[in-house]
Amino acid sequence: MSVRIERVELPGIGTRHDVLTDSGRRVGVVSYRTGERDLALFDIDDPDAASDTVTLTDDEADALANVLGASVMIGQLTGIREAAGLYTEQLVLPATSPFAGGVLGDTKARTRTRTSIVAIIRKAEVIPSPTPQTDLQAGDTVIAVGTRPGLDSLAKLLTHGAG
């Protein structure tokens, strides 16, 4: 899989990086010398004319990068199931979970369910490869990989605890 990215110097302004999609669209990020940035969608008939731009704050750019990164990771994990009989699942940790406010190691999820928690998504933040010391908060989305029965067990464990 290759993706074409073009870098365009904008004298006196900054730099623009364009991603050229398979459908022929051009999506660009203009990074100004001031540190500001714009996301630009270019006209399909005129690749030099932006049809729309969105100015992003630092927090918005960071959140967008995290969301895109998470969606790519989830897409890659989803592809595993065809090859290996594994599944991926996104489970939201309910506020009533006995593990909300604790750490991941308290769940003993791998031992109890034979599943692997590969990431946690908290608001706009992605926590890849969480450790047993990673804190768990109500509303976290837990990304797990395992067999169908294992993931069902994990869902019950995160909701009701061991027992």
Low-confidence stretches: none
The CATH topology label of the largest domain is Alpha-Beta Plaits
Q: Which CATH first-tier class of the largest domain would you pick?
A: Alpha Beta
Q: Can you name the CATH architecture of the largest domain?
A: 2-Layer Sandwich
Give the distance, in angstroms, between the N- and C-terminal Cα atoms. 45 Å
CATH evolutionary superfamily of the largest domain: Regulator of K+ conductance, C-terminal domain
Number of domains: 2
Q: Taking strands numbered 1, 2, ... along the chain, how are they ordered across the largest sheet?
A: 1-2-3-4-5
> For the CA atoms, what is the radius of gyration?
20 Å
Topology overview:
Elements: E1 4-10, E2 14-20, E3 26-32, E4 37-42, E5 50-56, H1 58-84, E6 87-92, H2 109-113, E7 116-122, E8 125-128, E9 141-146, H3 148-160
Antiparallel strand pairs: 1-2, 2-3, 3-4, 4-5, 6-9, 7-8, 7-9
